Amino acid sequence: MQSAPITYLDHAAATPVANFVVAAMQPYLTDQFYNPSSPYAPAIRVRHDYETAKAEIAAVLGVKPDELVMTAGATESINLIITSVSGHVVTSSIEHQAVLAAAATHEHTFVQPDANGSINPESITQALRPDTVLVSIALANNELGTIQSLKDIAMALEAERERRRIAHEPMPLYFHTDASQCAGLLDLHVSRLGVDALTLNAGKVYGPKQVGLLWAANYVRLQPVVVGGGQERGIRSGTENVAGTIGFAKALTVADQHRKAEAARLHQLRDTLRARLEQAFPWAVISGNPKKQLPNFLHISFPGLDAERLLFALETMGVLVATGSACAANKGTRSHVLTAIGMPPEVADGSLRISLGKLTDQAAVDRAADCIISVVRAESQRVGNL
Amino acid sequence: MQSAPITYLDHAAATPVANFVVAAMQPYLTDQFYNPSSPYAPAIRVRHDYETAKAEIAAVLGVKPDELVMTAGATESINLIITSVSGHVVTSSIEHQAVLAAAATHEHTFVQPDANGSINPESITQALRPDTVLVSIALANNELGTIQSLKDIAMALEAERERRRIAHEPMPLYFHTDASQCAGLLDLHVSRLGVDALTLNAGKVYGPKQVGLLWAANYVRLQPVVVGGGQERGIRSGTENVAGTIGFAKALTVADQHRKAEAARLHQLRDTLRARLEQAFPWAVISGNPKKQLPNFLHISFPGLDAERLLFALETMGVLVATGSACAANKGTRSHVLTAIGMPPEVADGSLRISLGKLTDQAAVDRAADCIISVVRAESQRVGNL
């Protein structure tokens, strides 16, 4: 049935593990399989290689290796930071389900984005309470690709911290970001982002699934979600994922080295695709923030059409795109992100999320444009939209 | 420095991923990398293969696939079942740190084993309270290799359940076991074990690290430790570890198929090793339950000697053994298991845990025996023990 070659345009949902990453991991599955907590030299070498991998990751973030906690993906990382704090949590209504669900276990305020999916720092300031302990805003939204002005939000939080200092209020205020969609595309240096804690996911950057991390500055007191043998400084027990962490380090460092060139390449490909679709369908709605947008993201809506029908028609031609985030079990419900930015239902229901990546070249973009134009035209005629 | 060929006798700490397991995983890292929650056919095939792997695991346990929750290892699995319940928890003082630490977050009673590390069902009965909700006892102890009579404990619990039924007390009473050390050695069929919940770990059975599972019968109400996208029936959010689960299924099913022959092979090798060491050192102390012992475990103590010195001397000869569990960050402290069975400190401090496995053959056992005999003789002479 699936005879067409695959044109994969859903890198935001999952990325293939790069061959050099598989090659880096493999020795730690087979020959160097030792438990890094064992006391003999071959295990100590494994421990050393594990710590070296953490140091490589730390260098990309500009942090200390012992401030990293390796987790089984971004969701656990997000849960770890949010369940570690006691107090009011501020986040936005367009965050990943993991942030929304973990924040819902606290007193919380969900700030609303603007129509582009941007979070106004002023709206964060308004949501702050004297007992607010954590603000969590993703560096880039995982449906729209809108990049947030974390530095401006950080300044707003610094003003509140200064108020608390003067008022002798001891309540800390931490700033966390999920940067999972941004590795290999944006600068992840935490001091330039202005955050106190950061989540990353190897599975979005050509590393293995179920590998992620939480960085938290040493003044953020973490509380373990999982207790036991005391690994990861007691914050996250369980035998370490040596192969996964080494694969993550390789994937992240290589992606970061090529970040500027790859971002520029994807930016140009994305703009080509967008231009072709805009030309063919002037009535289509492009969402996100045109001035602050992930270079590999294109969110486009065809009002009056059914995105699922488009998706399946495209799939028969080998073109794989998304209607929204893959990270939700409740399929068939309307995206909470599109609802939050005030998109009318008839627009939201005709929305495609197209995300480019390493598998995307000019031929892929040309092919995708041809197929999308053909499918949208056919669907438009079918429903009498044209 | 490490020029001798390695004789690995610490399979209880970690096992190499079998080559056929790596081969089974690899396609799901690279070509079949799709997010199993994505809606297009290639992702649906990945979802199908993931579910098939869970069904293969379920068949080994004799359970329904949708009663399995895949986790990042045994520690998370143990935390998931213990944090899911509200009430008094009964476990033993020789359990894995993950059980002890998670139980410590509840009201709890730690029952004491006998000198062989066996848990008397009567001691469990005595520890039960009207508000006891969970009993957790490992199928085999991870330091001594003592196999517990779970069926007898299950009968004791059934008597308490019957009492509660008659008294119209609604408090449930669940029985959980960590069987991580037993895959590929013992029958894991849960109805024959008599448990309501079971933990397994791929990393102990020639599968990948950081892959585990919790089976819980459908009448056990689990509470998520990690919230988010709602994967694993809402119990454990996060993009599924497709490659890891497929590797786990392959490792477990193959190990279970060869279980009887492999257990017999290891039993004979272990007995050969034990006989040689007993002959050379009649004063050595063999621990565990000789009638109910994992076939690959040998726990031997050399009173008056320092196990760490033995371990490092053996390491220079390429023989890798353990002094205790690798799963604890606090090295250099005396094993809580040996303390609990009442072993005097001067015996405990001279203890080696030797665990055989796929990497062990007759030549390895002969070599290990030669080396251990030589090292123990030298150390004994050094300290004037002989």
Which SSEs are present, and which pair or pack?
The structure is a homodimer of 386-residue chains.
Chain A: E1 7-8, H1 19-29, H2 41-61, E2 68-71, H3 74-84, E3 88-92, H4 97-103, E4 108-111, H5 121-127, E5 132-136, H6 150-166, E6 174-178, H7 190-193, E7 197-201, E8 212-216, H8 242-257, H9 259-280, E9 285-287, E10 297-301, H10 307-316, E11 319-320, H11 336-340, H12 345-348, E12 351-355, H13 362-383
Parallel strand pairs in A: 1-11, 3-4, 3-5, 5-6, 6-7
Antiparallel strand pairs in A: 2-8, 7-8, 9-10, 10-12
Helix pairs in contact in A: 1-8, 2-8, 3-4, 5-6, 9-13, 10-13
Task: Walk me through the structure.
2 copies of one chain form a homodimer. With 386 residues, chain A is of the alpha/beta class. Chain A folds into 2 domains: 135 residues, Aspartate Aminotransferase, domain 1 (Alpha-Beta Complex), CATH 3.90.1150; 239 residues, Aspartate Aminotransferase, domain 2, CATH 3.40.640. Chain A contains 13 helices and 12 strands. Chain A has a 7-stranded mixed β-sheet with strand order 2-8-7-6-5-3-4, with helices on both faces. In chain A, strands 9-10-12 form a 3-stranded antiparallel β-sheet. Chain A is globular and about 70 Å long. The mean pLDDT of chain A is 95. At the A-B interface, helix 1, helix 2, helix 3, helix 4 and helix 8 of A face helix 1, helix 2, helix 3, helix 4 and helix 8 of B.
Number of domains of chain A: 2
CATH architecture tag of the largest domain in chain A: 3-Layer(aba) Sandwich
Task: Count all strands of chain A and give the number.
Answer: 12
> Structural class, judged by helices and strands of chain A?
alpha/beta
- Summarize the main sheet of chain A: 7 strands, mixed
Chain oligomer state:
homodimer
CATH superfamily of the largest domain in chain A: Type I PLP-dependent aspartate aminotransferase-like (Major domain)
Overall pLDDT level of chain A:
95
* Beta-strand content of chain A: 5-15%
Largest sheet strand order of chain A:
2-8-7-6-5-3-4
Tally of contiguous helical segments of chain A: 13
Helix content of chain A: 40-55%
The run of helices and strands of chain A is EHHEHEHEHEHEHEEHHEEHEHHEH
CATH topology of the largest domain in chain A: Aspartate Aminotransferase, domain 2
**In terms of per-residue confidence, which ranges of chain A show pLDDT below 50 for 5 or more consecutive residues?**
none
Rg calc of chain A: 22 Å
CA distance, first residue to last residue of chain A: 30 Å
Greatest interface by residues involved = A-B, 73 and 73 residues
Shape summary of chain A: globular
